[in-house]
Amino acid sequence: MADHQEASVTLPSDPASVAAARRYVTDVLLEWGLPDDADTADSVRLIVSELATNAVQHTFGQSPTFTVDVRLERSEWLRVGVTDSHPRWPRRLPAAVQQDNGRGMVIIRWLTAEAGGRLSVSPTEDGGKTVWIALPWPAGSPAHTAGTC
Questions:
Q1: Closest Cα partner for 67 from 112, 128, 26?
Q2: Which of 3, 28, 69, 129 has the fewest CB atoms inside 10 Å of its own CB, making it the most exposed?
Q3: Helices (runs of H) and strands (runs of E) counted in the chain
Q4: What is the rounded distance in angstroms from the CA atom of residue 119 to the CA atom of residue 21?
Q5: Is the full-model pTM beyond 0.90?
Q6: Among 7, 4, 47, 6, which residue's Cα sits nearest to residue 24?
Q7: 92-115: per-residue pLDDT in tens?
Q8: Positive/negative CA dihedral, 98, 113, 19, 17
């Protein structure tokens, strides 16, 4: 079993890419041994959907692509990051009752905290940012080494 596994995909900043990002991460997690019906898999799918949606909607066409990175560190921590080239970092907005959108980061923070994880944002060399979540890898889930490294 490898100490560190990585996989990534770069997609166009298009609404159709949200589903593609979710499918990609689901396939990687399955390959690494996380059952599709695991609570962590459900949380990660929703988090990736929200992060990818943010990368498409809130970059105002200034980021032609976004990248999804998936890392498994020592079979202990699963890290998922979504990178775009827009300089504005995510902001915590109040979740107003009448608000139709703007709750993505609230959902991401809640799911991450609920799973015992953490959220961070880091700058990129080109002036963009990566929004990372780190979640504990579920005990008992093997981390297969085939294919993605």
A1: 128
A2: 3
A3: 3, 5
A4: 19
A5: no
A6: 7
A7: 666 554 455 667 888 899 999 999
A8: positive
